[in-house]
Design goal:
Elements (H helix, E strand, L loop, with lengths): L1 H23 L6 E6 L2 E7 L2 H4 L6 H13 L7 E7 L3 H10 L3 E6 L24 E3 L4 H34 L2
Parallel strand pairs: 3-4, 4-5
Antiparallel strand pairs: 1-2, 1-3
């Protein structure tokens, strides 16, 4: 089991690299990688803003890329590493694509569809139920998100303050 955790941490660090790439693009910093036969075959990150596509969550991006790469929508033998617990949309894609295993970092209390908000991914009524492990490098995965949203709130506050100062200055003109 310890060996599996070490492997999971190694691949989660790769997903974290993708999350940092998303952050640098101004996207919500969620990253993902797909591993097959012990190798990263596809990398991706949130790209909803840059692609103008509300479905471009990191999980969806890598599932699409892997299906194209393998020539099959069934991703049997694939492990998906993602820095945040998948939402309902992504969980649907995971189940339908038959990803064998999902490993995620931080929990998502508002929209997580494995254990936090909903328990969809492990529902035995699905035609496929992936093996799921959560909480791998959870603190690091949560920190990148917290830092991102803290920065966003500070920027919004600064813009609002600047607008207020600008409005006040124009009152005296």
């Amino acid at each position: 089991m310890k060996e599996l955790l070490n492997i999971d941490e190694i691949f989660m660090k790769e997903a974290l690299r993708e999350a940092r790439r998303a952050r640098d693009l101004g996207e919500v910093p969620v990253g993902a990688v797909v591993v097959m036969n012990g190798q990263v075959v596809v990398r991706g990150c949130n790209s909803m803003l840059t692609s103008r596509d509300p479905s471009a969550h990191a999980e969806m991006v890598v599932i699409r890329k892997t299906a194209l790469l393998t020539g099959n929508y069934r991703l049997i033998g694939a492990t998906l590493y993602v820095t945040l617990e998948p939402c309902l949309m992504c969980t649907g894609a995971i189940v339908l694509s038959r990803v064998d295993r999902v490993v995620y970092g931080a929990w998502e209390p508002k929209t997580g569809a494995h254990e936090s908000a909903f328990r969809v991914m492990s529902d035995p009524r699905h035609n496929h139920v992936p093996d799921v492990t959560g909480g791998i490098l959870a603190e690091e995965c949560a920190a990148i998100l917290s830092d991102f949203f803290r920065m966003r709130r500070a920027e919004k506050k600064a813009r609002k303050k600047a607008e207020t100062l600008s409005d006040s200055a124009s009152d005296y003109s």
